[in-house]
Amino acid sequence: MLTHSLGFPRMGIDRELKKVTEAYWKGEKGEQDLLEQGAQLRVRHWEIQAGQGVDLLPVGDFSHYDHMLDTVALLGAVPARYGWEGGSVDTDTYFRMARGDAGHGGATAMEMTKWFDTNYHYIVPEFTEGQTFSLSSTKIFDELDEAVAAGYAAKPVLPGPFTFIGLGKSVPPGFDRWEHLDAIVAVYEEVLGRLSAKCAWVQLDEPLLALDLDAAVTDRFAAVYERLATAAGSAKILVATYFGGVDHHAETLLSLPVGGVHVDLVRAPEQLDAFAARLPEAMHLSLGLVDGRNVWKVDMDKALELVDRAVLAVGADRVMLAPSCSLLHTPVDLSAETGLDAQVREWMAFAVQKCAELDVLRRAAVGQDAQEELAANRAAWDARRSSPLTANAAVRERMESVNETMARRVRPYAERIVSQRERLKLPLLPTTTIGSFPQTPEIRRTRLAFKKGELAKAGYTQAMQGFIAESIEKQEQLGLDVLVHGEAERNDMVEYFGEQLDGFCFTANGWVQSYGSRCVKPPVIFGDVFRPGPMTVEWIRYAQSLTDKPVKGMLTGPVTILQWSFVRDDQPRSETCRQIALAVRDEVVDLEADGVAVIQIDEPALREGLPLRRDLWKEYLDWGVECFRLSASGVQDHTQIHTHMCYAEFNDIIEWIAAMDADVISIEASRSNMELLEAFGRFDYPAEVGPGVYDIHSPRVPPVQEMVDLLRRASKVLPVDHLWVNPDCGLKTRGWPETMEALANMVEAAAKAREILK
User: Is the dihedral of CA 516, 520, 525, 529 positive or negative?
Assistant: First the structure.
């Protein structure tokens, strides 16, 4: 009974990859330093997984930026604007696709969006008419050679051709990118032919199958995988699915001439029988038993019940054990987290521990001694189920008192906006930012010194006020209309709030990759959530005292706090979300009472949390929107509620976005050249919209005319008096010089657009 891993975290326990990558971008490290650090991490991660008993180790899951971007390079699918002339895709071209060209007028970065319903962002492949494809990277072959030379049983991992195309983008939008399937498969055949000589298994990830797909797509799987299986020769192909049930595609998957199918039994345990009962004799069934998306220990008794059912149906020699998906979405190692509450820590498992859990499950399933580990696991689960840490009577009582009127504003937007405009007195096309300003080394050092006890609270408060004052001064210098305090005191937009809410705990080093070199350290929700006291009022009050212009109160919304945390799995997510919504509501009411006229409640994760199957959307969106409204609706008409969303397709959920009843929504729009805004125009969106006019994830400073052109395009979709002008997202990852230059251009672009569009 083989165990295997679908993928492992890339950054390293100390975020080594992040540090060397950012040093490379700054010119402080060379390409060789970058490549050597990557090689060291790969070897270390193979050693870790093998040491925990994993049989087949993933190769190709490591990336210097993103696995979909790696596949763009592999297939030579480089957009023309980067000036690539063929051959091997070099490092500079690779990063230019991810980040754009720095300086004026350079090529824009490729679009980035969320990987299914995770907080990981992938680079979106672009497909154009007449595009050609060729094998243009040796990365996967080089890494397989490294693993084989080190003596490991390696399993190359690649996005499958259907997922690669299905998650791509047609340029222009009307082009049928599936026309390229045959040409792309031809390159995959070449890749598999080269890999097969040195490995027994190749994993092709097809999580696209967890979505609702047209028959025109699924009908092509058999012919394509016939070609791929032939090209792979003696190597077996494992088609990996995850993030949801794929039993609606069971007939398609079980008809493929492949060596195995992987199914996610954490998200969809009910799908086991659809595969085990009909598995062809030549096929293996990989069971995704250990949660690759969360930090809780597997319930081994429940997992072994699934293993026993599979073994009974197909035999132990055709069952494989694995995490539900790549462990990319979990922190690396729990052993260093000595600061966690000992009781809560006993309930948890990170990537290293999850690999060890697989070995225990395998030993137990085949009759080897695992009684000690099983008993310890059972004790941990019993302790968690009965622990007083997880339940708060006051929170439960308040939840019972929630009613429909608490989730409704007093008057509709069309009436509220009159009093808001009278109060704010803003110009046409008002300018603002999304919330954060650059987190300088000085800011980070100050926060760290306070956290370590090296800086007293009075000194910390004084220092933070200095950073806030600097942000306000710079914004007034730029001429922005609605200001922000800059969020110098915030380590992260979710972690900051979690630290002030009961029911959360925090890791010291539980980093997870979000995109590129960007890592986040999600809080862990283990118990009922409530707000002991105000979280932001003091900082916003100070910022507002420095200016006559309105300063936004900045909050993270309940759905985003939920989605970007590791959430307790012992009650419905909707219940946890409502608890968070009540805590945010209390903060909103306190901000308004303090005189704050504009309050932004960010919900970038609303779209991300959608179930992958459309028939499950309504239930989730109903409670998600209700939670936002519950958090926002305790204010008077003249208080303006903003929200922000980024890197999400809005077409399919625009009616629910409208149902959130925010007065202003700001969205990411520049990478898509305002394409994302079109959904708001088709729907006749009733409120105001701030389409982002420049991409903050790129060091590139856009010229004034480019932003004017984007605003012109936006004005053709929405009434000009419903438009705001802002960046795509927060500015914490940028430096002050480029931020000031870009915002100065943005303010100038708004002024020019006012003259043109008034």
Answer: negative
Determine the average pLDDT of the residues in 680-694.
Answer: 89
Query: What spatial distance separates the first Cα and last Cα of the chain, rounded to whole Å?
Result: 70
Q: Which residues contact 566 (CB under 8 A, 6 or more apart)?
A: 294, 295, 296, 522, 523, 524, 525
Which DSSP symbol is given to 249? G
CA distances from 51 to 38, 112, 204 (A): 20, 35, 25
**pLDDT at 237 exceeding the cut of 80:** yes
pLDDT in tens, 541-571: 999 999 999 999 999 999 999 999 999 999 9
Full DSSP string of 367-414: T-S-HHHHHHHHHHHHHHHH-GGG--HHHHHHHHH--GGGGS-SS-HH
Phi and psi at 737, nearest 5°, equal: -60, -50
Distances (CA, A) of 522 to 81, 504, 519, 560: 36, 10, 10, 11
The residues facing 667 across adjacent strands are 645, 691
Known binding-site residues equal 15-18, 114, 119, 434-436, 487, 518-519, 564, 602, 608, 644, 646, 668, 729
**Distance (Å, rounded) from C-alpha 67 to C-alpha 157?**
10
pTM: 0.90
Q: Which residue has the tokens 């990411």?
A: 668
Ordered by where they begin, the domains of the chain are: 16-77+85-386 (3.20.20.210), 417-438+479-493+527-538+549-757 (3.20.20.210)
- Report the side by side order of strands in the sheet with 553-556: 553-556, 598-602, 640-645, 664-667, 688-691
Count of beta carbons in the 10 Å neighbourhood of residue 255: 12
Do 531 and 500 meet the contact criterion of CB atoms below 8 Å apart?
A: yes
User: Could you give the CA distance from residue 85 to residue 97 in angstroms, rounded to a whole number?
Assistant: 14
Residues with active-site annotation: 697
Nearest to 134 by CA among 199, 192, 88, 202: 88
